[in-house]
């Protein structure tokens, strides 16, 4: 009997991480499986034969996509040719990254079964794309509980496997040890998390630093931590810190350690907001993007919030400061209120705990792997 082959596509760093954990679990259940795909170093480290490192050229916003259009087009068609005529996998697993992945699914779904792990947030954009997914995907492995009902209404086989971040969001050492090492004797400890993409850091870090300057006046003993992303150059952060009087503790690739010692956080919208919620750290959501991206988004998005904690709660439990509302004075004023008002902090923490509980028990990657193997065994 020939070995079964699986092709995976992850276009961003977070998808690469989740794809690597999924592959690890699949190999544990069936060591004979062979893996190919588009992804990054994490998936490659688990033995996936990577054709292109998509996360290294990840784009955000309309301008970024247009600038790299021909790069993505070349990767798309070369991959399509190899999948259909050379690899001929038993199944393709798509991981988030809808712009690329949904187009790819349309090209292959009649010849190769398609599973989707970590649904694109199409529920934020309206029903039309949900119907498209139901037409080109055979099984959805959802990580948010409400997605099951959304997809099943369109006739798609959708299984809730839980959120993989429940397993991942853990500090490397106890918080008290980290506080002692970093000499965090100030109160409060406030973390600044400006995003994982260069364009995000350029737009959001100056706002966070100005907000921190105002907070420092209100809380002279406060300590600030800047969470830096390892794949971005330190000079990117240096340039903004040079013009600020804030001198934060700078930590690279230590997100969960940073959160474990934080009393409060200012966080760029994205995966970090859910990681902060799971860590049970009170926070505010801040986001600025290119005007073209914001202009289109305002007209297409069908939900009232962009923060996943708020989406999951069904109400605004975490204040959001988006685009023109991302003013340092307003951000600092709300942060001060939550730092001083014990009742408001407790209410937010209770809501964040409910959000964390809604994401399922640990073991999401293992449950997803079981579902994948059950699916391909019945082909």
Q: From the coordinates shown, what is the CATH architecture of the largest domain?
A: 3-Layer(aba) Sandwich
Distance between the termini: 15 Å
Determine the strand fraction and express it as a percent band.
Answer: 15-25%
**Whole-number total of structural domains:** 2
Q: Give a count of the beta strands, DSSP E runs of length 2 or more.
A: 13
The coarse overall form would be globular
Mean pLDDT across every amino acid position: 92
Biggest sheet strand line-up: 3-2-1-4-5-6-7
Question: Can you give a write-up of this model?
Answer:
This protein is an alpha/beta fold and 379 residues long. The protein has two domains: 5-164 and 363-377, Glycogen Phosphorylase B (Rossmann fold, 3-Layer(aba) Sandwich); 175-358, 3-Layer(aba) Sandwich (Rossmann fold), CATH 3.40.50. It is 50% helix and 15% strand. It has 18 helices and 13 strands. The chain has helices at 13-29, 41-45, 61-67, 69-87, 98-108, 127-136, 147-152, 165-168, 175-181, 198-218, 234-241, 255-260, 271-278, 291-300, 308-313, 328-340, 342-358, 364-377; strands at 5-10, 34-38, 49-50, 91-95, 114-117, 139-142, 157-160, 189-193, 223-228, 249-252, 264-268, 283-287, 320-322. A seven-stranded parallel beta sheet has the order 3-2-1-4-5-6-7, with helices on both faces. Strands 10-9-8-11-12-13 form a six-stranded parallel beta sheet, sandwiched between helices. β5 (114-117), α6 and β6 form a beta-alpha-beta unit. α1 packs across α18. The longest helix has 21 residues, at 198-218. 43% of the residues are buried.
């Amino acid at each position: 009997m020939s070995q079964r082959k699986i092709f995976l596509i992850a276009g961003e760093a977070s998808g690469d991480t989740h794809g690597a954990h999924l592959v690890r679990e699949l190999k544990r259940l069936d060591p004979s499986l062979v893996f190919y795909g588009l992804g990054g170093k994490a998936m490659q480290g688990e033995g996936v034969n990577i054709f292109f490192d998509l996360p290294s050229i990840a784009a955000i916003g309309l301008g970024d996509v247009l600038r790299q259009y021909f790069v993505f087009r070349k990767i798309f068609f070369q991959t399509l040719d190899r999948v259909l005529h050379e690899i001929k996998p038993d199944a393709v697993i798509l991981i988030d990254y809808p712009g690329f992945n949904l187009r790819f699914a349309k090209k292959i779904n009649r010849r190769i079964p398609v599973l989707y792990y970590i649904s694109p947030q199409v529920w934020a954009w309206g029903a039309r794309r949900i119907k498209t997914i139901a037409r080109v995907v055979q099984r959805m492995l959802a990580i948010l509980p409400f997605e099951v009902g959304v997809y099943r209404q369109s006739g798609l086989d959708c299984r809730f496997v839980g959120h993989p971040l429940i397993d991942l969001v853990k500090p490397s050492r106890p918080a008290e040890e980290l506080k002692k090492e970093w000499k965090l004797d100030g109160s409060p400890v406030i973390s600044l998390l400006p995003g994982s993409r260069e364009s995000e850091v350029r737009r959001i870090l100056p706002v966070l630093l100005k907000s921190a300057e105002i907070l420092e006046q209100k809380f002279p003993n406060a300590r600030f931590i800047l969470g830096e992303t390892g794949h971005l150059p330190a000079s990117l952060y240096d340039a903004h810190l040079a013009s600020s009087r804030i001198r934060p503790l700078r930590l690279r690739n230590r997100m969960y350690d940073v959160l474990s010692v934080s009393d409060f956080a200012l966080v760029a919208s994205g995966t970090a907001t859910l990681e902060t919620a799971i860590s049970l750290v009170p926070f505010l959501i801040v986001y600025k993007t290119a005007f073209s991206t914001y202009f289109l988004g305002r007209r297409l998005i069908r939900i009232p919030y962009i923060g996943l904690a708020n989406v999951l709660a069904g109400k605004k439990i975490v204040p959001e400061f988006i685009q023109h509302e991302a003013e340092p004075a307003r951000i600092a004023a709300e942060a001060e209120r939550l730092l001083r008002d014990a009742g408001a902090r407790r209410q937010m923490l209770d809501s964040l705990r409910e959000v964390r509980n809604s994401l399922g028990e640990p073991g999401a990657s293992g449950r997803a792997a079981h579902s994948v193997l059950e699916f391909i065994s019945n082909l």
